[in-house]
Structure formats: C-alpha cells, structure tokens
Amino acid sequence: MKIIEVTITPLKIPFTESFSHSTKSRTYSDSIVVKLKAADGTIGYGEAVARPYVTGETVESCLQFMASAIWEHIKHIDYPEPEPDISWLYKISETIPTAKSQGVIAFNAAKAGFELALLDCLLKSQNLSLSTILPPKRNTVIYSGAITSSSIEKAVKNAKSFKLFGLKHIKVKVTGEEDFSRLYAIRQAVGQETSLRIDGNGTYDFDGAVRVCEELAQLNIDSAEQLIERSTPQTWAKLREMAPIPQMVDESLVTIEDAEALIAASSCDFFNLRISKCGGIAQTIRIAQLAQTAGIKIQLGCQVGETAILSAAGRHLAAWLDDVTFVEGSYGDLLLCEDISRESIRFGNGGKGGLLRKPGLGIEVKDEILEKYTWQRIQRM
C-alpha cells in the first residue's frame, strides 16, 4: 500500500512547570508530529523530538529533512501488509533514509517520526495492534520519576510526592552545584528502599565526574548517567574503572556504530535507549539486543516533553523487551498542560502503566489539539 499524503506539524505545548537540567531549561514540548495518509484512507501518526545536543538535529533541520529527503523517498514505496513477525518491522524501518551532515550525527529523530507514523498507519489499515509484532512479556510497565535541577527544598518536596505515589525508581538531575546536599536530602526523604540514580547531561569534566561519584557513592546510587560530554569509548572505559557508581551512557549512544564501539571497549554498565534518539523502534531494538548479548543493562528512556505518541511506542517496547532495568516516560498531563490523545496513557500509582491493545500504536490522536498547539504546517502529496 502506498502513502499518498504527509502533514508535518511542529508543536509548542506548554508544560505544567519548567523542566531543567544542566544544559537546558524547558517550558514547553517542541515535538514534531508526522501524520501520514494511506491510499485506503487510513491515518497514522508518529512523533520526533529534535535535540541539538543529542543527535545534532534542530527542529528546523529535522523539518527540512523530513519534508525533502524522507517524504520524497517513501512516497514511491508500495508497502507490504503487516506480518506478525519482527522482520516486518525491520523492513519498514529500512525504507526510511537517514544521513549525516554538518553538526548532525544522524537524522534519527526524523527517521523515528516517520517510522512510528508508518507503523501506526499500516497496522491500523489491517486493524492490528503493534503488540501483534511485539507481543508483551509483562502485564504492566513500571515507570520512574524524575527530579529536575531545582532547589533542595523543591527536590525534597517532589521526592516525597513520588514516594507517596508509590514510585520505586527516581532519577535526579545533577549540575555540579550542591550535588551531595540535594541527594542526601532526597535520600533522607525517600528512604533506602527507593532506587536513586543521577543524570548529569554531560556537565562534568572527567575529574569532576569521578569526584561526584566518589562523593555520592555512600548514598547508594544505582547509576550515573552521562556525566561527561560525548566522548570516546576509551574515555568511558577509564571513567567506568575509576568511578564507584555504575556508568550509563546516553548522548554518547546515538547510532548502532556507537553501541558496537562502546561494547568493544567495555565502556559502561548501562545503555540509555530512547526511541527518538536511536532512530525508531527497530534501531532501538537492535541496540538493545547488542547490549543484552554484552551483559549491559538497559534503561528505556524518553525525551522531555514527549506526547502520547512516543509514550505509546515506548510502552509497547518496554513491555516486549526481555530485560529492562529502568523505564522513563508516559508523563502525559503530569508535565504537559494538555496531551494529544483521547485516552490517557499516563502512568498511575506505583508508576504502573497498562498494556495497549487498540490498533496501531494503541491511541487515538485528537487533531484539534494538534491544531491548537502547532505553529507551522508542512503538507505534501
């Protein structure tokens, strides 16, 4: 079946409160929604989140690559009907081009947006759920909470709220300022039974990363995520050797080639996989399989401000993966002033999120919400 029309809409959905880390403070979601129409009239939706400090993509460069390179390629393809096998998913992903350019590691967010829209559209056309391709291995997905780089008082308030809400895993953004005081206060608030991990978004130099791990190790921190900037696998291996907290890579892991190099150098203990960052579900699965073979643990992360589209895709993937230690996302209207789906897929008490069984990605997107928050419309036929 051919795809006959695409509509690409970048969004600005306000947050309920700002979300800050060491490199950025965000007050709205800047997701890009891809809407595809098939020859039989079926509509499918995908989502991309462009992050210059992750893949090198900006919203503007992502839009341009989507409208030119990707659409001009896929509009000529006659797509096969869905098959209940993961090989079909790989075939769909492989039809979507990506590229490197000046300052861009890979147009992975752009690719992911189209991959999700194609999967949603083609599966809906046959009244099939993505769970047909990725049958769940668990009945619920357990999500983490996240504490931004706020004041100690606000961090403790959020930590106590998460504990009351029954969350067992919490990630704390660290900046190099009052790290020990904040983490000590949070640990006191949640007790020893709650899993804590830290995320630096590349804010530390090598020595600073070692030092903060040495200072925080006594607080029983389960992982330290991307404390240094995107670095060589050898640098990561040295940090892993010297730091007393298990190391997780994020911005240093964008492509399959990144994963292979990190594994070869025994560089880390965790991979943080994000569907938009990694170029879609298929490429995320390939990296996850490499990690599991190498004995590296997995966090299925998210981009700040994801809407229900990426949240739904993450739910399916988290339920299917053989082993995932931490899961992030599905914040819904906990963070967005308004999400874009008719059904809420926000996690509930205990961080629990149920399985999605409806056709496609399992959600119904409200076009009126897209209209409300879009600031540009790109349409091609």
Provide the residue-averaged pLDDT: 96
Low-confidence stretches: none
Q: Rg, please?
A: 20 Å
For the record, the CATH architecture of the largest domain stands as Alpha-Beta Barrel
Instruction: Estimate percent helicity.
Output: 25-40%
In total, how many domains does the architecture comprise? Answer: 2
End-to-end CA span: 15 Å
List the strand order in the largest sheet. 7-8-9-10-11-12-13-14
Reading off the top of the CATH hierarchy, the class of the largest domain is best stated as Alpha Beta
Please state the structural category.
alpha/beta
Write the H/E string, N to C: EEEEEHHHHEEHEHEHEHEHEHHEHEEHE
Question: What can be said about this structure in brief?
Answer:
With 381 residues, the chain is an alpha/beta fold.
What does this molecule look like?
There is one protein chain. The chain has two domains: 3-127 and 367-380, Enolase-like, N-terminal domain (Enolase-like, domain 1, 2-Layer Sandwich), CATH 3.30.390; 133-354, Enolase-like C-terminal domain (TIM Barrel, Alpha-Beta Barrel), CATH 3.20.20. It has 13 helices and 16 strands. The chain has helices spanning 59-74, 86-94, 108-125, 130-133, 152-164, 179-190, 206-216, 233-242, 256-264, 275-278, 281-294, 308-320, 367-373, and strands at 3-10, 13-20, 25-29, 32-38, 43-48, 140-142, 145-147, 169-173, 195-199, 221-225, 247-249, 270-273, 297-300, 326-327, 352-354, 378-380. The strands form four sheets. Strands 7-8-9-10-11-12-13-14 form an eight-stranded parallel beta sheet. A four-stranded antiparallel beta sheet has the order 5-4-1-16. Strands 2-3 form a two-stranded antiparallel ribbon. Helix 5 (152-164) links the parallel strand 7 and strand 8. Helix 5 (152-164) packs parallel to helix 6 (179-190) and helix 9 packs parallel to helix 11 (281-294). It is globular and about 60 Å long. The two termini are 15 Å apart. One of its GO terms (molecular function) is metal ion binding. Pfam families: MR_MLE_C (PF13378).
